[in-house]
């Protein structure tokens, strides 16, 4: 069976390609950030067809996209970015003008227990896409863009002072961040060696709706709701710089359209919190929303064994993005966290569907030894 026949079964819509001025491949669009990016871009750019290519791993969820699934400029195809036949077939069929690559294994704790899936998806998958883009666009790179979405974790860990800039040397310290750093290097190598037109952004911690509850904020909201312990790694003094996911999506759209080829942009919230201060803020907001007595949720805080190699502090200097492209976060953290908690409380069904499956096995294994 030919590759096209094999995978054509995933296509549910009859797309008339001549209706669109541009066609963009979004990888990992069923995940947390990818689904927000698609929601934003599909609504903003109706002359562009967005093809969401996602393997639907444990982290991918089409329920994140129900509000845009019937949009005429949105199309979903299930598949693995590590499969060169399928990826080449996609480029051949859709003649993409650009790629925004988000598909990845994204959770640091999982990379500590199972590094190989991170090497496979984050490194081999990225090279598979780079090869396909290079091959498909070989006759003419003009107007094409390969945009790689990366993380601030590639820069390593900061002490009490300083920020990550675009010039900070790479110093990844977890299998996750090392795999993302490798993918960044490969994307730059394809630019320098073959002239592939690339852009990269490195963003700080995102929060918001539709985030898989293995990450700090949705996991703790869910545990507070269910009166379960809140497992704080180490002494809780690690610092993260939090950005509302919708602001990340808008930054990606801006960089895709206005950023310079070959450039890297750091994206951050100017919003540093120690984990323990953030957790206390969440507990206070949850007490109010759940009409619990003040201090009730904080009693769930439980200090547990630290994450292996736990990076101490991340903080982004986002001045380049602000100065060159006039981007800045649109809401304060208190507002964003408030909206986020409201969303999870109003969408229990979404959360329950996730937490009722294999999630419980992951949770028990992840937290039982701590
Ligand atoms: P996520 O884990 O929520 O989603 C990842 C998506 O990729 C899922 O839909 C999954 O099904 C898909 N995927 C995984 N392996 C695949 C494969 N082999 N082929 C096709 N699809 C596959 O991740 P996220 O938090 O939305 O992060 C998206 C991107 O942004 C990642 O590249 C991540 O490194 C980067 N990033 C995340 C953050 C953050 O705070 N979450 C911050 C900065 C950068
Ligand atoms: O900085 C960007 C990165 O942010 C992204 O590249 C990653 O994909 C994303 O997962 C995130 O990585 P972190 O490791 O910072 O996020 P996480 O939500 O896993 O943890 C945030 C902090 O909270 C971190 O210091 C570890 C701590 N933590 C986390 C969990 C899940 C706890 O104390 N307890 C927990 O149960």
What does this structure look like?
With 370 residues, this protein is α/β, with parallel strands linked by helices. The chain is built from 13 helices and 12 strands. The strands form 3 sheets. It has a 7-stranded parallel beta sheet with strand order 3-2-1-4-5-6-10, with helices on both faces. Strands 7-9-11 form a 3-stranded mixed beta sheet. Helix 3 (84-94) runs parallel beside helix 5 (115-136) and helix 7 (216-225) packs parallel to helix 9 (275-289). 42% of the residues are buried. Bound molecules: nicotinamide-adenine-dinucleotide (NAD) and 2'deoxy-thymidine-5'-diphospho-alpha-D-glucose. 2'deoxy-thymidine-5'-diphospho-alpha-D-glucose binds at residues 106-108, 151-153, 204-205, 215-216, 219, 231-233, 238, 240, 275, 307, 314.
Secondary-structure map:
Layout: H1 3-8, E1 22-27, H2 32-44, E2 48-54, E3 74-78, H3 84-94, E4 98-101, H4 108-113, H5 115-136, E5 145-151, H6 175-194, E6 198-203, E7 205-207, H7 216-225, E8 230-233, E9 239-244, H8 245-258, E10 264-267, E11 272-274, H9 275-289, E12 301-304, H10 319-325, H11 333-346, H12 348-355, H13 359-368
The protein binds nicotinamide-adenine-dinucleotide (NAD) and 2'deoxy-thymidine-5'-diphospho-alpha-D-glucose (DAU).
Features:
42% helix; 370 residues; binds 2'deoxy-thymidine-5'-diphospho-alpha-D-glucose; alpha/beta; binds nicotinamide-adenine-dinucleotide; seven-stranded parallel sheet; disordered N terminus
């Amino acid at each position: 069976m030919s590759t096209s026949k094999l995978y054509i079964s995933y296509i549910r819509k009859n797309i008339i390609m001549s209706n669109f001025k541009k066609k963009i491949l979004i990888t990992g669009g069923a995940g947390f950030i990818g689904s927000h990016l698609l929601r934003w871009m599909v609504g903003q750019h109706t002359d562009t067809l967005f093809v969401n290519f996602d393997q639907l791993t444990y982290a991918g969820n089409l329920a994140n996209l129900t509000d845009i699934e019937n949009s005429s400029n949105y199309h979903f195809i299930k598949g693995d970015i590590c499969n060169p036949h399928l990826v080449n077939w996609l480029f051949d069929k859709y003649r993409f003008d650009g790629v925004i690559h988000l598909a990845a294994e994204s959770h640091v704790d999982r990379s500590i227990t199972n590094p190989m899936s991170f090497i496979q998806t984050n490194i081999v998958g990225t090279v598979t896409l780079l090869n396909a883009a290079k091959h498909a666009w070989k006759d003419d790179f003009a107007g094409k863009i390969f945009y790689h979405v990366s993380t601030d974790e590639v820069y390593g860990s900061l002490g009490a002072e300083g920020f990550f800039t675009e010039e900070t040397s790479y110093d990844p310290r977890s299998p996750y961040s090392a795999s993302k750093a490798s993918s960044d290097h490969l994307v730059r190598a394809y630019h320098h060696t073959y002239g592939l037109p690339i852009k990269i952004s490195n963003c700080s911690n995102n929060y918001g709706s539709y985030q898989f509850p293995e990450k700090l904020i949705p996991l703790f909201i869910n545990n507070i709701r269910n009166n379960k312990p809140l497992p704080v790694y180490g002494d809780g003094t690690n610092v993260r710089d939090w950005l509302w996911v919708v602001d990340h999506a808008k930054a990606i759209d801006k960089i895709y359209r206005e950023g310079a080829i070959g450039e890297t942009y750091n994206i951050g919230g100017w919003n540093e919190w120690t984990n323990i201060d953030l957790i206390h803020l969440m507990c206070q907001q949850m007490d109010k929303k759940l009409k619990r007595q003040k201090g009730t949720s904080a009693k769930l805080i439980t200090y547990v064994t630290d994450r292996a190699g736990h990076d101490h502090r991340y903080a982004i200097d986002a001045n380049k993005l602000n100065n060159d492209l006039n981007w800045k976060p649109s809401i304060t953290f208190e507002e964003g966290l408030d909206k986020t908690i409201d969303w999870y409380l109003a969408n229990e069904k979404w959360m329950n569907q996730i937490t009722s499956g294999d999630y419980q096995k992951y949770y028990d294994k992840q937290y039982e030894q701590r």
